[in-house]
Amino acid sequence: MGKIRVAINGYGTIGRRVADAVTCQPDMELVGISKVRADYMTGFIGYHGYTLFGDSPQCVDQLAKGGFLTPKARWKTFLSKWI
Prior knowledge:
The protein contains 4 helices and 4 strands. The chain is α/β, with parallel strands linked by helices.
């Protein structure tokens, strides 16, 4: 049986704790975290190497322009996954 794949909506107090907990579980995989605006916590998503999902290419551009793009970060949009 494969790993349980988990996606997190938001990276506030609860989202951070869930992300850390999921990455500690051997039977779970963190697929990514969604954000709709850039704030100081967005930088930690890239720092940890988690995939960041935006709701549109414009959202991802806004997050990248905010200076949150790091070498370890991977950026995707929700729409690109489903089109």
